Amino acid sequence: MNASILPFGGDDAALVADGSALARHARPSADYARREAAARQTLRAAHAEFGDALVLSSSLGVEDMVLTDLLVAEGLPVPIATLDTGRLHGQTLALLEAAQTHYGRTIEVWRPDAAAVDAFVAREGADAMYRSVELRHACCALRKLEPLARMLQGRRAWIVGLRREQSAQRADAAARELDAQGRAKFSPLFDWTLGDVWHYVAQHQVPYNALHDHHYPSIGCAPCTRAIALGEDPRAGRWWWEQDGAKECGLHLTQALHRIDQPGETT
After folding, report:
1. Catalytic machinery residues
2. Are strands 184-186 and 176-179 parallel, antiparallel or unpaired?
3. Is 69 a domain residue?
């Protein structure tokens, strides 16, 4: 069995050996049942409203794997798409293949314009992101934002794995927002805790990236991601050489649209 695939099911007490992300994190909140039900309802409502014009934009991180599992469990034929930037970890690429086998679903893979990337690397070098924030943003724009724009072309709504706990920049995330291009953007897990996410993984045998077991809570391109130490912010491993600030690549710069009221939600 692939090491990225959860090799067991049942109660959280039956976790794999100490040290795994499951053993560290799989602890449901007191409000977990309501949150799971609300996430399922958000997905059903999004599909009912947008149908074929809806897509799950998956980074293949644990939140997006939970969303993939929920879509399959709900029987929703929502396309699932991911970005292959050309600099992903081998573990992430292995999970891409494993997830397609596990769910019997083809995942769309969108890649950057090869000529544009080659020109950038020839001009600035393969690791230009370490030299300045501007070059890092330029690299993200080439490898992420441009293929994302093509992924979303002709689609009117997308689903993402944002959670309020993930960072200060995401603390105001809502179940439904408007992105900068006016598309509806759904974050069904917006109010889930980390423990909720991993509890779901344990309960439903969700495949996940083996790097999560090695203290990578947030996984992006290999040159721009490292493991974090105990007590560090969950996004401290992203672009860690930069000064404190927004640890974002630009994929999730949004403006508020409106919220889908969730039973019992507080802000």
Report:
1. 249
2. antiparallel
3. yes
